[in-house]
Every structure is written in C-alpha cells, then in structure tokens.
Give the backbone structure.
Amino acid sequence: MPKSQVFSIPALKRMPAYLRELRNLQRAGRPQATSPILAQALRIDAISVRKDLEMIGAIGSPGIGYAVEPLIDKIENFLGWKNASEAFLVGTGHLGTALLGFRGFEDYGLKIIAAFDKGPIPAGTTVHDVPLFDFSEFRHLAGRLQIHMGILCVPDDAAQEVAEQMVDAGIIAIWNFTAHTLQLPENIIRQKVNLAGDFAVLSVRLAARLRELEVVKEETV
Amino acid sequence: MPKSQVFSIPALKRMPAYLRELRNLQRAGRPQATSPILAQALRIDAISVRKDLEMIGAIGSPGIGYAVEPLIDKIENFLGWKNASEAFLVGTGHLGTALLGFRGFEDYGLKIIAAFDKGPIPAGTTVHDVPLFDFSEFRHLAGRLQIHMGILCVPDDAAQEVAEQMVDAGIIAIWNFTAHTLQLPENIIRQKVNLAGDFAVLSVRLAARLRELEVVKEETV
C-alpha cells in the first residue's frame, strides 16, 4: 500500500460490514463471494463493491467473485485488526466507564490497556478490569508501552488541554468522544463521536415531527 | 417555531456546548453572556454564535449580550430537554448494555425506560436497572406508553428487520448504533453512530502514519 494513497472514507467505513458478511459466508461453508452477493448484504451496488475491494488490492474473478478466506485476511490486515490496536483512555466519567465496559471493541481489535483520570488514584484501582492511573503518569506509560492511540472522554471544557498533553506524550490518533472540536497540529489523526450533539439533532427533529402530527390530528378531529 | 423551519445541523450540534458554557457562567454568578465569550468557548467566531442563537429565537442586546438564565431555558426548551425524552432500546449485547449503563444520557434528558431482546426473558429481568422485555412485547408497550424514539443496538444483520418492526409499532425517530444503513420510509428520523466504522477509519490512518514515520526513521538512521 503506497503511503501516499488516499482512501475513500465511506469505503473505509464499509470494511467492517464486508468483514461481517464474509464471516457469515465462511460460517455457512461458502468458499466464494460474488460482488452482487456482497452488494445485497451492504445495500449498495455491485460496482461500488468492486471499487471498494479494489481499493485494498482485492480483484475478483469474473463470474466467480472473491475467495472468502483470503479476502477476510486482506481486510483484517488492511484495517490492522489482526494485531490488536492498543489504546489509552482518558476520563472515567459516565461515558469513559461505559466504553471501558464495552466488550465489543475487542471484536475489532481495539484493546484499551489503561485508563487515566485526575489523581490521587489508589494503586491497583481498575475500571471494568482495566487498570486506572493518575493522568500525570500518562506520558511515562505511553512512551514505555509505545501507545499511539488515545480515547478522549473527559468533560468538554477539559478536552483541549488534555488532548494537547496526550499529543505531547506521543499520541498520534485521538478518538474524541467530547463535544469539543480539538485544535491540534494537522498531522494528528482525529475521529469524533458527539453523542450529545447527535441526540440534540434527533430530539429537535422528533419534536418538530410530533408537532406536525399534532396539527394533522387537530385538523382531522 | 414554524413547523416548516429548517435548522442548520452544525448549529443544532453546537447547542449542547452552548448549554454547557452557559451553565458554567451561571455557576460563576455571571448574569450576561456576550457572543465573543461564547465564541471563544466554542472556538467559532462571534458572528456564527449570533446566527446560531438567532435560529432558536434568541437575540442579544448590543454591547450587553444575552441574559444567561433565559437563554439556558430557551435552549433547553428548543431541544426538548426540559421534559425528558423517553426511549426504548432494542438489543442488549455489548453496546446496548453499555448504553443502558451510561448515566450521562440523563444530563440531556434522555430516559431509556425499557430494553428489549429476543425472548424468552424471565419476568423482572433488568439491565442496569432498566427493565428488559421480550421484543414481541415492543409494539404493545410502545403504544401504551406512547414511545416515539428507539435506540437500535441489535447485530448488524438484524438491524433492518428490527427497525421495520419498530416503525410498525409507532417509532418515528431511530438512533441507529449498528453499521447498517437503514432503508425506511422518508418520514422516519434517523441518526447513525457507527463505532466500528469510525474505528476502521482511525486505525487505517494511524497505521499509514506509523509506516510514514518508520520510513522517516529509517532514512535518518
């Protein structure tokens, strides 16, 4: 994979769905997957499937499709999910604690090996079996364990400062679960999940729809 | 608020951040908030702040800004967060269970009042204190309790079928935590959180960056 290559984000986001479908086929004892079969499972068209898979270097045979097992390998390697990605999580409030308890991360090779919060934290403290440390130890541990990915779950108003300290400690990729848009050097990789923001959109739209329905109801009574 | 009004999604997503900042000011005993102060907290410009707040009908006084308490009220009312939104959650695997345990939802007025999964489920079963029912009871309970919002956490390959049944039962808004893009009638409100997809993007980018750094390191040795 040439380092200058640019990947399509929607295609990247579909990779876990391809994996799921291919594993289903594997379990069903099917050695081959055609692009129409994958297309149907993902509810996209077969041309998009072929483009997505070409992006990671997989070319199907005309009329036969893709060999299931090698394609699973290829996608897992592409995503780096064969070797678990290790990450540190910072902020063990409601959301951080929920994420530490979320076993599903392991399905996609993410292993949270330590969590951090403001001290003092008694030695031996764990949250859902993940060891918890004082954030002052973050830099030392990230360096020693060669951790490059951080999951940020601190209160919004602490997000910027904590993220800067994570970057100083060698973190290159931040999964940001705060509502704050981080201002960081260009070369820091970021992915944001804004649950409160998403929920705001959903609730405003629902409230508007319910008012519309109410109007319709009044008019028909 | 006229029912035909269209809201800016980025502005909607900023509303929780305004609320947070206004509550901070309130706690600090500050009765007024100027647009530059809010702009700084949200790291956007003051003109955007004024536009965002105008969208919900709040107009600041020149040189004085906005009265903090009425503005908090206005945003909370706009978001419908004053009266908790009640929702049903379907699918109590890893993610569904984590969400049921996430106390932070209550901060933004979301109350998950029941969870559902495939039966048989013994009477009195709860997950993080939320009562769990057989999905076959969904329609009956949604109608009786007038629930319009559903949180979807089932396995990806069940997402479409379960979502259709939720819609049949009167659900109008679906917060979709599966990787599956739902095919539903236009008038059903949807918000998607694809954690596996987001993580795929993050890990591929991190892997590419680490390869680049490796190349640089080899070249400088």
Summary: DSSP finds eight helices and nine strands in chain B. The helical segments of chain B are 9-27, 35-42, 46-55, 68-79, 94-100, 138-145, 159-168, 195-220. The mean pLDDT of chain B is 87.
